Amino acid sequence: MDAAQALADLTEISSQIETAVLFDESGSVLASTLADETRATELARAAAELLDAAAEVQPGGGTLTQLDAATLDGSVFVVRDGERRIVATTAPEPTVGLVFYDLKSALRNVGEEPAKPKPRRPRKKKVEGDAA
Amino acid sequence: MRRRFLGLLGFATGVAVGTVLYRRSGRARRERVDLYFDDGSMVSLGDGTPGAERLLPVARQALSAARR
């Protein structure tokens, strides 16, 4: 599934997510729900900064995989999986577990090829007298 | 007896209304940042901690970019 389709599915599934941007480890935007490219880049940059700053705040622990920053105006979620990252914003007090689940599903779907139908084996013709 | 009952009822109503107003005012909601690591651990940085003070402005910046 391509990145744009994954984001389209994400916003369709999750009513809590207001905006989402998929980006890579260099900060390049792969897809966005924002029409304005500058805003998408700005959001991706802020998300990358959040990940970097969070790693500095908690050094020595395991690798940071996801974070949720809750403010009075809304929440920011960032999830990373390998080289890909996704950032999403929501209204205040979202259902945190559900948002993380939907973001991780979207990340998994990116780059995943749609399941191909299995080739059907040709049916053997019944030959009269086989039953004998 | 009746006066005591009315007094208790008034007190309970006051507590209930106060709780609802406090929650609606947003003061009960606290700003925080939760960090999740690959080993399954989670750290919650509450408002006022040095970590949250570093991260919350960046989160506000992200929200502003998303909503502008």
Order of helices and strands of chain A: HEEHEEEH
Please state the second-level CATH architecture of chain A.
Answer: 2-Layer Sandwich
The unreliable regions of chain A are none
Helix/strand-derived class of chain A? alpha+beta
Main pleated-sheet profile of chain A: 5 strands, antiparallel
Radius of gyration of chain A, in Å, reads: 21 Å
Average residue-wise pLDDT of chain A: 88
Please give the order of strands in the largest beta sheet of chain A. 2-1-5-4-3
What top-tier CATH class of chain A fits best? Alpha Beta
Radius of gyration of chain B: 20 Å
- The ordered H/E elements of chain B are HEEH
- Strand runs of chain B, count: 2
Overall body shape of chain A: elongated
Work out the largest interface and the residue count of each chain.
A-B, 36 and 30 residues
- Would you tell me the overall average pLDDT of chain B? 84
Question: How many distinct domains of chain A?
Answer: 1
Beta-strand content of chain B? 15-25%
What is the tally of helical segments of chain B? Answer: 2
Polypeptide structure, described:
The complex is a heterodimer of chains A (132) and B (68). With 132 residues, chain A is of the alpha+beta class. Chain A has a single domain (3-109), classed as 2-Layer Sandwich (Beta-Lactamase), CATH 3.30.450.30. Chain A is 35% helix and 25% strand. Chain A is built from three helices and five strands. Chain A has helices at residues 3-13, 37-57, 96-109; strands at 17-24, 29-32, 64-70, 75-81, 84-90. In chain A, strands 2-1-5-4-3 form a five-stranded antiparallel β-sheet, with helices on both faces. In chain A, strand 4 and strand 5 form a beta hairpin. In chain A, helix 1 runs antiparallel to helix 3 (96-109). The radius of gyration of chain A is 21 Å and the shape is elongated. The N and C termini of chain A lie far apart (52 Å). The mean pLDDT of chain A is 88. With 68 residues, chain B is α+β, with helices and mostly antiparallel strands. Chain B folds into two domains: 1-30; 31-68, no CATH class. Chain B is 62% helix and 16% strand. Chain B has helices at residues 2-25, 50-67, and strands spanning 32-37, 42-46. Chain B has a two-stranded antiparallel sheet with strand order 1-2. In chain B, a hairpin with a 4-residue loop joins strand 1 (32-37) and strand 2 (42-46). The A-B interface holds A 18-19, 34, 39, 42-43, 46-47, 49-50, 53-54, 56-58, 61-76, 87, 89, 92-93, 96 and B 26, 29-39, 41, 43, 45, 50-51, 54-56, 58-63, 65-68. Strand 3 of chain A pairs antiparallel with strand 1 of chain B, so a sheet runs across the interface.
